[in-house]
Amino acid sequence: MNVNLEYYKVFYCVCQKGSLTGAAKELCISQPAVSQAIRQLEKETGATLFVRTSKGVQLTKEGELLGRYVTAGVEQLLEGGRMLERMLGMDMGEVRIGASDMTLQFFLLPFLEQFHKQYPKIKVNVTNAPTPETIRSLEEGKIDFGVVTTPFSCQEGICKRPVKEIRNCFIAGSSFSELKGRVLDYRALLELPCIFLEKTTSTRRFMDQFLLEQGIEPKPEFELAISDMIVQFVKRNMGVGCVMEGFAREAIQKGEVFELAFEGEMPPRQICVVTGEPSLISMAGRSLLDMILEPSEELDKP
After folding, report:
1. Interacting residues of 153 by C-beta distance below 8 A, sequence separation 6+
2. Are 137 and 212 in contact (CB under 8 A)?
3. Are 227 and 247 in contact (CB under 8 A)?
4. Residue 187 φ/ψ region, left for φ over 0, alpha for ψ in the -120 to 50 degree band, beta for the rest
5. 257, 112 in Cβ contact below 8 A?
């Protein structure tokens, strides 16, 4: 059955107002136009939907049956419109982000704090995972965007934008104090107990590639999933660790660990924002993305 949806809109309005005149006023059309729409709907459904009374119109049994479904459908549509309006007004919605411990702690957190203050009703879902997993989630459309560290590989169509430079450093505890103040050759790592991140992380891949270029391939005694734990292991003199400098800063300042100096510093790398197809990013996601890519002066302050 081919039915003009406008007829249902008129039918719904007559049901709500209880009269053709009230429906005409609500819809800003003439009463004859309302009557014509109802007649056409009755013709197409093959049923009498209203009977006239002294007070207006009354639904027939057939009209009541149709009315239940039409009312539910129209109200769902209206609710959908209201929800969309709220979403566009940033009164509701969700942002899905992928980030590692490092990018969350040393880059993303201040932006999330500002975003939450500005849009407290927006749900922020952060998937905490290593860079390769974040890239995979982006490629599969599971997140709006990711904040990752180089090096990484991704499919064509993924856009990456560097937002912050970071550096790795090697640290040691008091048991290795004889190394303090010395400029070491990277080959010294072959004789030291090493504590590195797991091979699935971009930090580890970057370090491995750099050391391989120096002609060495240290075999770590410990491989950990979290950079903070490397600092804890180093503080307990369980070996020499390699972490992003930010994780070790506080322990270095307190004198709990010290940074090793080497001939030729490991080059810096980048924290990058990665995005896929722009049309797949939610309205809330685009707002947070704009906030990150165009930081305010306040967030730029140290």
Report:
1. 135
2. no
3. yes
4. alpha
5. no
Q: Output the CA torsion sign for 126, 132, 138, 140.
A: negative
Neighbours of 251 (CB within 10 A): 19
Rounded to an integer, what distance in angstroms lies between the CA atom of residue 131 and that of residue 108? 14
Tokens of 110: 């201040």
In angstroms, rounded to a whole number, what is the distance separating the alpha carbons of residues 140 and 156? Answer: 13
* Confidence check: pLDDT of 42 > 80: yes
- Reading the block at residue 260, the tokens are 């090793």
Q: What is the pLDDT of residues 66-84, one digit of tens each?
A: 989 998 888 888 777 666 6
Distance (Å, whole) CA 300 – CA 302: 6
Strands 269-275, 145-149: pairing is antiparallel
Rounded to an integer, what is the distance from CA 191 to the centroid of its chain?
43
If you write DSSP's letter for every residue of 32-85 in order, what string do you get?
HHHHHHHHHHHHHHTS--EEEETTEEEE-HHHHHHHHHHHHHHHHHHHHHHHHH
Asked if omega into 220 is within 30° of 0 (cis), the reply is no
Q: What angle do CA 270, 274, 276 make, to 5 degrees?
A: 160
Of the candidates 199, 227, 242, 238, the residue with the CA atom closest to the CA atom of residue 104 = 227
Pair 29, 72: CB distance under 8 Å: no
State what percent of residues in the chain have pLDDT above 90.
Answer: 52
pTM of the model: 0.65
pLDDT digits (tens, 9 = 90+) for 268-301: 999 999 998 887 788 888 889 999 988 544 444 4
Write the DSSP symbol of residue 122: S
